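User: Show me a protein chain along with its predicted structure.
Assistant: Here is one chain, sequence first, then C-alpha cells.
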Amino acid sequence: MDNFKLDKPIPYYLQFYSQLKKMIFDGIFKPGERLNETQLAKDFGVSRSPVREAMRLLEKDGLLTADDRNGFVIYSLSVKDVEEIYKIRMSLESLAVELVIDEAAESEIDLIEKQLRKTEEAINKGVKETEIISLNETFHQLLVDFSHNSRLAMLLEHVNVLIHFCRVLNFKGDDRAEVILHEHRKIFEEIKKGDKTKAVQYMTEHLKHDEEHLKGVLRAEETDESSR
C-alpha cells in the first residue's frame, strides 16, 4: 500500500477543455460565437462525449452560456459583469495586500519585486502581449499566495477565469502594459514600507482604473457593432 500510485493518462475531456479554453482566451473563438459540438468533435478527432463534458466545464467557468437551441455560445462580457467582478476584486485584493504586509516573509517580498523586474524586462524586449498578461497575472497571484489565507484564495479562484477574460480585454489601448506596471510598482512600494493604508489605496485605485478602461473598451465595441 505504501508504494501505491495511480498513473492514468489525462482524460480526453480535460485535454479538450484546456485546449478550448486557450482558444477562447487567444481570440480564436469570438464572444457571442456559437460552438458546434459535432464540428468540434470532427476537428479534434474525438467523439462528441468528451466535447460535451468539456463544454459543461466551460459553462461552469462562465466562459460558455447555454442558448435556446441546446447549444453553447462564447460568453460576452458586459459592463454590468465588469462592475460586479471588480467589486469582488477590490474587496478581496485590498484585503490581500493588508495580509501580505502582516504575513509575508522577506523572501516572498523579494519574489514579488523580482516579478516586477521580470515584467519590466519583458516589456522592454517587446515580447508578445499574452506573455505580459501572464506576468501581470502572476503579480496579483503572488499577492494572494503570500497573504497565506486559503479562504481568500478559494474565493478568488471562483472568479479567476472571468478575471483572466477581463485582463485580455484590459490590454486594448496604448501603453497599457507600462501603465499597469507603474501602478503595480506603486502598490508594491507601499507593501515594502509596511503602509497598509497606502497599499490598499493604490490597489483600489489600480483596479478602479482597470474597471473604467474595460468599460470604455466594451462601450467602444458596442458602438462599432451598432455602426456596421
